[in-house]
Amino acid sequence: MKDTFGRTITYLRVSVTDRCDFRCSYCMAEDMTFLPRQEILSFEEMERICSAFIKRGVTKIRLTGGEPLVRRGIMEFIKQLSEHLKTGALKELTLTTNGSQLDKYASQLVDCGIKRINVSLDTLDSDRFTEITRFGKLEQVLSGLEAAKKAGLKVKINTVALKGQTDQELDDLLSFVADHGFDLTFIETMPLGEIGGSRVDHYLPLSEVRTNIEKRWTLTDTDYATGGPARFVDVKETGNRIGFITPLSHGFCESCNRMRLTCKGTLFMCLGQDGNLDLREVVRASESNEPLQAAIDQALNLKPKGHEFVIDETQDGPALNRHMSVTGG
Ligand code: SAM
Ligand code: SF4
Fold first, then answer.
1. 286 CA distance to ligand 1 centroid (A)?
2. I want to staple 112 with a disulfide (CB 3.0 to 4.6 A). Which of 82, 99, 290, 329 is the partner?
3. For residues 245, 173, 16 and 11, what is the CA-based torsion angle, rounded to 10 degrees?
4. What's the whole-number average pLDDT of the chain?
């Protein structure tokens, strides 16, 4: 699958639900209105769409949300998708989670052929954790991380850089991941969705994060790449690697290999643009998969060259009205 800019699409992210047990302050407003059940794709419909993409050359699927592990029946869906791992058509099935349900699910994920997961964790301070996530409990996530480790999952921690918060505990985060054998990636906040407040106050450029870390740790740039937008450095003192995802301060669109499906079947060709196709209408209109394949062709033609969002003092509101939980990042 090649788009009009010659980029090969091999990666589909699927937001399986817009609901979440947390309300992270940079992601959602406190009083969110979630989609009514009937608007959401059934797992059968999601599976049909995923299979259509796999048939066309998608080799990696990431489940995300909202919180993917809070949707009822999620393990059955994961089991179904993992059949494509067995045939070799899919090379990787993974997920991004807030970690709250890992205690319950970590070993079942391993049984389904999942090898690594991303877990979002912005702070190691339990008061700050509850302040950021509004409803979350740090202990629950730490215990989920232990379960993931015990089950043999490779874990990458995603940390959103927040001014006045992340910059207070960079050393703790670096030591924590080194002690547990996790990878760590910092992410800049992106202006997606109304959050009931400003993002400018919390925006912390990763260049500042790096400069701060470099005062005490020895970082060396590496060519290591995961096919995603992160750039990596080696940390001499710990022997592990940390990544930086800088959508605002560096373009990362030239090598974009992905598309994003929301839980209501909307396909976004770019995280930072509103262009989309309604695949729910397509799957519900016909049992044949031909219209679905035609829609995928159309999506390839419509994939834009890049995103257009910025955060600066002149633009305080969201660049797009869609929350991150709609596409799952
Ligand atoms: N609930 C899961 C979790 O938190 O990992 C999956 C969905 S969450 C939307 C995916 C990732 O997006 C998380 O790492 C989260 O920190 C990040 N995220 C959410 N809103 C963001 C924003 N406005 N800017 C940057 N990252 C954001
Ligand atoms: Fe939920 Fe993840 Fe958004 Fe936090 S970042 S509110 S855990 S979807």
1. 34
2. 82
3. 40
4. 90
